[in-house]
Amino acid sequence: MTNTDAGSPTDPTSDVDLIVVGGGVAGLSAAFYWVTEVDRDARVLIVEAGPRIGGPAIQHTFDVDGRRLVSPGGAQELTFPSAFAPAVRSALSTVGVDVDRFHSDTVATHYTDRGAGGHGFAFAASIWGRSHLVAHGPSAAADFADAPIAPRARPEVAALVDEPTDWLAGRTDDEKLAALRGRSCDEVLRDFAALDEDTHRFLRYSTSAQSGMTFDQHPALDAALIGYLGLDGIGVRPGGDPWDGLTRTGARFFPHLDPPIFRFPDGNATVARALAHHLVPDLFDADTVDDRLTAEMSVDALDRPDNQVRIRLNATATALRHDGPDTVLVEVTAAGGATTTYRAHAAVVAAPAHATARLVPELGPDQRATAACLGRYPIVSASVAVRNWRAWQSLGISRLSWPGHPTWQIAGLEFPVTIGACAPSASPDDPTTATALGALTEAGTAPAAGAAAGRRRLRAATARREMAAELRSLLAEALAPGGFVADRDIVDVRVEIWPHGYARYATSRDRPGDGSAATEAKRRLADGVGRIAVAGVDVIDHPFLDGAMESAHLAVVRLAGGGAGR
Question: Which of 44, 333, 536, 553 is 20 to 30 A (C-alpha) from 443?
């Protein structure tokens, strides 16, 4: 293939070997696998509609009172890395991401050693009529006696936190699994426990930040496996084969319930930066994960004409089609409006699936229908820089949750991991960051409808400003008993809104017409058409970082004729 200066506005057509639409982890991984397993000399163009790489795996940095702070701006964890596919583990190793280091670099007792190891349940006045904080420490029971909930609900909620109940006691393990299978978390409690309605309200959004689904939508079987609040007393423990009816993710996690220690200071941005640096070697003036954490990215290096892999930001792919059986054409419109047509041997679409049908008109009717129904769960995330964390220590907590809140559900101080120049704040008098997360899927409806309602909220022009103001208010309210004053103690709040955040995945709760798609239908969508394959968490039915990377590998394997990686 003839290589020309891809992207020159005077060239009507420019040639590369592979086109990747989407600069998130899946797109970066597709380029990585292509140049490492298919053609080491291949020229690759990655087209990203946004202004940065990594998708939701982004880094936020702050300078507070002379200290440089690094925080995840979106995706935060490497979830259960012992379950990663071999291709994912190999890629991470190649780009210098050592998962095993967390066993020594993470100090799980960091906050406990400083008197802040507890969890605070913050009742927001906007939800419960008055604000109230219940601190649950490592050695102290949670006291809900003054919580703004019905008197009958107070001991029930306290028991949920301190004395998890086996609602299915007296049944065999098989009988318990049968009872869980097909029910939501809330349905289990309504069918097998007689609880006050305020207890159900307390739990309503307790699973949202982790999965995007509310308590009345989340499949009980998976919740019992992970041990979510309310179902963590069910006495069935993983053993043998995965339970029938688990989601694909649940079945994968079944023997791999690793401790929650695998998180870089900037979350999964470290992985995105490592992949990008491998593809564009002069992107950072730093060669290791440790040094890149605080290194500045040379954005100008992303799209230089002599790069083997070019990453074009603020560029929109508007049409992707075949020009003969072995050639793909894509039209790309730059921020200034200039359009260039690129020719390649193959293409990987690593964008949200709902947009794929529009981008690839050659997909079959069933594939287009699958893509159209895969709208994701709406997510908000935030990094908050604070001058100190004395209020948190005074209250004995490092983590917060807002029971019953439909927007923000959890927050916590910076993760206690030391990597490179990044280390958790040693003293409560020093600056630090907190991260917050919430899902906006509405409760009381099917997941697809609830997600669509939440996305509408996030499309408002004022959404980011409103979410930031709401989070400031919630933090001020929750931490006020510890002496926290928002205007004095908060330096900055950076909110990211993700209308299409967590990927939806097939569960035992799926019903006809709820907008979901079976795993097999997603596999057919991933196959794409001809020399075009589809990658990303939507099509692999595993909505985590390793799912994005694995889907990219599968796409590359298919386009390479099944020979790569085998």
Answer: 536
